[in-house]
Amino acid sequence: MGFSYRKSFKAGPFRVTASKSGISYSAGVKGVRVTKRANGRVQTTISAPGTGLRYTASSTSSGKRQSLAAQATAVNAAVTDTSAAHRRARRNRRPGAWYFAIVLLSAGLFSAIPFAHAAARLRRKDLRLRVGAYAAVAIVLAVLSSITPQDAHGNPVGTAGHALSTIVAVLALAVMATACFQLVPLRREVYGLEAGPTPPTHPAAADPVVAAHLAARARRDEARALAQSDPVLAHDLRIGRPDLPREYEDGGLVDLNSAPAHAIATACSIEPSLAERIVAVRQELGSFSSLDEVFVFAEVEQGTAARIRDYALLLPR
Known about the structure:
Blueprint: E1 6-11, E2 14-19, E3 22-29, E4 32-36, E5 42-48, E6 53-58, H1 68-79, H2 84-91, H3 98-105, H4 112-122, H5 125-147, H6 158-191, H7 208-229, H8 231-237, E7 254-255, H9 261-268, H10 272-285, H11 291-297, H12 302-311, E8 312-313
Parallel strand pairs: 7-8
Antiparallel strand pairs: 1-2, 2-3, 3-4, 4-5, 5-6
Helix pairs in contact: 3-6, 4-5, 4-6, 5-6, 7-8, 9-10
C-alpha cells in the first residue's frame, strides 16, 4: 500500500479537501452540492435526503494528456488566432452567461448577485426588491443548513435532520429554477442582446404619421413577447394598464384580464358599452384564457374583434 493523505476543512456551506491527488473545493447545502475535484472535473449532486434519490452530473474529464503532436497542433492554431479583436469577440459571444453560472454553482445561495448587477445597470426598483428577496432566502437556507442535526460525516441525523435537509434541498432547487427563469429576459435586457423594435417595411412608411403607428405596433409586439416570457415582470412594469402610472412604454396595449372598462374602450377605440360588456363577462368567468373566448362570450363583431386583437393582451391573474 502506498502513502495516502486526506484532510477536509469546512466553513458553513463551503468545504476544502486536501489529498494526495491535490485540492478540491465544494459548496452547497444539504441535498445540493457542487464540487470541483483536483483533476479539474466539476460535479453537481442533487439529492432528497432520506429517500435514496440522487442525481449526479459531471463535466467531461480532461482524460489522458494530449500527445506531443496534438499539443503542437493546438499551439500553432492558437498562435494564428491571437488578434485582440478576435479574442474580444469570443469573450462576448455569450455575455452575461455568468448570471446562470453563479446561481447554479452556488446552489442558489448567491442568486442575489446577478440581480444586484442588473439593478445597478438598469436602475430599477423592482430589481432591488428581488435582490433583497434572494438575499433573505439565502440567509434562510444557511440557517436551516446550520441547525440541521448531522453526524461526523455531515449526514442528517434523526427525523428532524432528514426533514430539514429535505426542505433545504427543495428550497434550493426552487430558488435555482426561479432565478434562472427570471434571468433569461433580464440578461438580454442588460447586455442588449435583442435589438429594439424596428417598424416593418410598409409602402407608406415614409409618412411620419404612418411610421409612428408602425413603431407603436412593433413596440406592442415587443411588450407581448416580454409578457409571455416573464408575466411577473409584465405585472411589475404594468404592461397593459394605461390607467395606472408607469414608466415602461408598451405601445398602447391593454390587459383585458385586469384593465377597467374605460381603459379598454379608449385603448381599443370601441364603444364604452362593449367595454363594459367585456368586463362583465370577465367577472363572470374570473379571467379570459384567449381572445377568441372574449369575442364569443362578449359577442364582439368580426371587424371590431380585429381592432381589439391589435391592442389586447391577456395576463394571468
